Every structure is written in C-alpha cells, then in structure tokens.
Amino acid sequence: MNVKSLKMNLKKEVLSNTWEIELKAFKDLRGSFVKTYIRDFFEKEGLDFQMAEDFYSLSQKDVIRGMHFQLPPHDHDKLIYCPVGRVEDVLLDLRAGSDYGKFASVTLSGDEPSVLFVPKGVAHGFKSLTDNSMLMYKTSTVHAPAYDRGIRWDSFGYDWGEGAFLLSDRDLQHPSFSEFITPF
Q: Is 184 inside a domain boundary?
C-alpha cells in the first residue's frame, strides 16, 4: 500500500511524542467515512501502537472527565478521537524530565476529524463542549482497575474556562498534581 494514499497526516506535536493526527473524511450523500488507524502509517511515523482494548464514553455539555492514566506495568498508549460532538481534550505530561508538568489541549470534533496519539505517562482528560459528545479510546493494554489513577482536574494550572461543570465523585477525589510522585 502506498503510504501517501493513506489519508492521514501528522498535524502537530502537542507534547513530546504526543501527536494530533489529521484524518481524511470521505463524504458523499450518505454521510461520511473516516479511517482512524492505519498500521502502515503509524509504523512509517515511528509510532508504535498495538491495540488491546477499544471503548467509548458519551458526555453531556460541561462534563469534565479526567485526568486519567494507568500505572506501570499496565500503563498504555492511547488513540483518542471524537466522532460525534466536540470536546476540549487536555493532556498532562507525567513523565520524569524537562517536560514534566507541561500541559496542552486540542479541540476534537466529528466535523474536523483527527486522532490523538497519547503515549504512556501522559494523563488525559476532557471537557464536553456539546451534549452527547462521544469520545473513542483505543488502548495498548487492557484496563487494570488496581493500576487506574488520576490527577485532580483543577490542580495543575490548566484553565478549563467558566461553567457549572459536572464531574464524577471519583474524579473529584483524585490527588492534586503537587501530591503526585511520578513512576514514569
């Protein structure tokens, strides 16, 4: 297969080795069709990703989920995309080194398809900007509840904007970033 015909493009590096990948939507009278993963493209770009699990969440407007990650040895790379609705996707670098504590955000939507490649050691969260936003996740390891962790969403300096946000009890009880000791 000709890699140039794969209809994916590295759009920007959001954090170190954390990429927004632009996708091509094929549209006609019926609707649209979007490829979210092509192994040849990922291999060509040096992004090692082997999917072990696939799931999605649905969220109402102003729901915040995050900041989530799994501890080693069950940590995982993720591919994240929003086929329906619109979200403000937020990433926090937990990897030891000069980028530790850096954060960034990307708007994901079904109208402008892209996928995020999020490596191990980067916490992920998002704010739904519309009702019924669907966020899809492909992960390189299976969810391991005993290794599932989070950082409190409002403890690392990111400006989530104004609103009456809705969060789970679990997300409200995560430790703050200042209390976190990285294993990455």
A: no
Q: For the chain, how many structural domains are there in total?
A: 1
What would the pLDDT profile of 116-173 be if each residue is shown by its tens digit? 999 999 999 999 999 999 999 999 999 999 999 999 999 999 999 998 999 999 999 9
Q: Which residues have a catalytic role annotated?
A: 68, 137
Q: What per-residue confidence (pLDDT) applies to 153?
A: 97
Tokens of 165: 């946000």
168 in a structural domain: yes
Task: Please state whether the peptide bond connecting residue 73 to the residue before it is cis, i.e. omega within 30 degrees of 0.
Answer: yes
DSSP type of residue 145? G
Cα 60 from Cα 62, distance rounded (Å): 6
For the question of whether the overall pTM of this predicted structure is more than 0.85, the answer is: yes
Structural domain contains residue 127: yes
- The CA distance from 45 to 113, in Å, is 19
Which CATH number belongs to the domain containing residue 38 in this structure? 2.60.120.10
Parent domain of 159 = 3-179
pLDDT at position 3 = 44
Please tell me the distance from the alpha carbon of residue 107 to that of residue 43, in angstroms, as a whole number.
Answer: 25
- Domain assignment present for 143: yes
Stated as kind and residue range, the H or E segment containing 40 is: helix 39-44
Would you state the pLDDT for residue 26?
A: 86
Q: Evaluate if residue 2 carries a pLDDT over 80.
A: no
Residues in CB range of 68: below 8 A, 6 or more apart = 123, 124, 125, 148, 149, 150
